[in-house]
Specification:
- By secondary structure, the chain is an alpha/beta fold.
- It is built from twelve helices and 16 strands.
- Strand 15, helix 11 and strand 16 form a beta-alpha-beta unit.
- A five-stranded mixed sheet has the order 6-5-4-7-11, with helices on both faces. A five-stranded mixed sheet has the order 14-13-12-15-16, with helices on both faces. The protein has a three-stranded antiparallel sheet with strand order 1-3-2.
- Helix content is 40%, strand content 19%.
- It has three domains: 77 residues, Winged helix-like DNA-binding domain superfamily/Winged helix DNA-binding domain (Arc Repressor Mutant, subunit A, Orthogonal Bundle); 131 residues, Nucleotidyltransferase, domain 5; 172 residues, Nucleotidyltransferase, domain 5 (2-Layer Sandwich).
- It is globular, with a radius of gyration of 23 Å.
- Bound molecules: zinc ion.
């Protein structure tokens, strides 16, 4: 049933207010009790009660005093990130990672595997089970403090049944219910597409803590978007939206695995950029990349190193990447009119080489450029954003008071 028609009991109000205080401290902390009362509009005695409850539950900590000049200096509070732990799992097309995180979320311990679901589903699943137990063993002293498992996936998912849906670029032959492989200790499992998880992470710990309408444009192995509308991740009616990578930007472009032609992903996903770099070395007389490609395959960090050394082929490829990303950002802004766009995924590591080009594309092509001025940011979380995003899914449910822990 839609929660539109569900009322609040007094106990719900209690949880809601605690949730509000935790959310505020997580996003804007440290804050004093006076700050909390002022921002929430709750009375000082109510805030005192909530804070006392959360302090005795070890969920808050006092972290010094405010540097106000006159009078008694108020004590500052922040959320205790070590109160609980989260297991984060991120699948990529090339493998997966399992990590133990605190509520930062910060990665405390991780296991990375190069077995991919795409190439070797059965072995990858056995490895997943093994690495998951390995992480649980590491966390053995704190098992009862683990809130749940967050999973981010570069493809379509059915979050309700913890199932990765079959998809030609990630999981070819069948959909996959992960509960069987992660059944130890019966922890709750939450799942999201990686761009959504990364988007969520930016709202908890990154550039978008205060954003209500934001687009996270993820350009990595694949290209997709996490869309935040009125403070909530928007996925669409069938929960399969946000697929900006599969919007066509060229009617006569190459056929994509999805069946469409000239998909944005075919031009700016990192594997496609590297393919272009490889091809460019065939024609380049001499290039840093030519040497690399003759020794081993070109990887994205080679392009960045080349660009840093002034290698013209590397600079040219990155400039082109900037153009395609710019076009993607223009399309996203024209569609959603967000207050902020965050460019993330591996491409964000090339910020210094692409930012000028992206800005220029926006200046030339954005529809209402005279009237709107969305902030453009580059994610600072590098390759780990989707793993941290997986942890943020659980953090999000925890702070909403849905895990019954406060
Ligand atoms: Zn496509």
């Amino acid at each position: 049933m839609s929660d539109l028609w569900v009322g609040d009991n007094l106990s719900d109000v209690k949880v809601k207010n605690r949730s509000l205080v935790l959310r505020l401290l997580k996003k804007k902390g440290p804050l004093s009790r006076i700050d909390l009362a002022r921002i929430t509009g709750l009375t000082q005695p109510t805030i005192t009660n909530i804070v006392n409850d959360l302090l005795s539950a070890n969920l808050l900590q006092e972290v010094g005093v405010s540097d106000t000049k006159a009078g008694r200096k108020p004590i500052l509070l922040s959320m205790n990130d070590q109160a609980f732990y989260i297991i984060a799992i991120n699948f990529t097309r090339r493998g997966f990672s399992v990590a133990l995180c605190d509520l930062g979320p910060t990665i405390l311990f991780r296991r990375d595997s190069s077995y991919s679901l795409l190439e070797n589903t059965e072995i990858a699943l056995l490895e997943l089970q093994k690495e998951f137990i390995h992480v649980l063993e590491y966390a053995t002293q704190s098992l009862r403090l683990i809130l749940g498992i967050g999973i981010s996936v570069p493809g379509p998912v059915d979050a309700d049944s913890c199932t990765i849906l079959a998809h030609p670029t990630f999981l070819k032959h069948r959909s996959l219910d992960l509960r069987f492989y992660l059944r130890e200790y019966d922890l709750p499992i939450f799942m999201m597409p990686d761009a959504d998880a990364a988007c969520l992470h930016e709202t908890w710990s990154g550039e978008a803590r205060e954003a209500q309408n934001m687009v996270y444009f993820m350009v990595g192995e694949g290209v997709g978007a996490g869309i935040l509308i009125d403070g909530k991740i928007y996925r669409g009616h069938h929960r399969q939206g946000g697929e900006i990578g599969h919007t066509s930007i060229n009617l006569f472009g190459p056929r994509c695995v999805c069946g469409n032609y000239g998909c944005l992903e075919s031009y700016c996903s990192i594997p496609n950029v590297l393919k272009k770099a490889q091809e460019a070395t065939w024609f380049a007389e001499s290039s840093y990349l030519k040497d690399i490609s003759s020794q081993r395959g070109i990887e994205f960090h080679h392009l960045l190193e080349g660009a840093k050394m002034g290698d013209s082929t590397s600079l040219q490829i990155l400039n082109q990447l900037g153009q395609y990303i710019g076009v993607g950002v223009v399309n996203l802004i024209n569609l959603y009119d967000p207050e902020m766009v965050i460019i993330g995924g591996e491409a964000a590591l090339a910020q210094e080489f692409i930012a000028g080009t992206v800005d220029q594309v926006l200046e030339e092509r954005l529809l209402y450029r005279e009237y709107i001025n969305p902030r453009l940011r580059y994610s600072r979380w590098g390759r780990d954003v989707a793993l941290l995003g997986a942890a943020s899914i659980v953090l999000d449910h925890f702070i909403a008071g849905e895990l019954g822990r406060f």
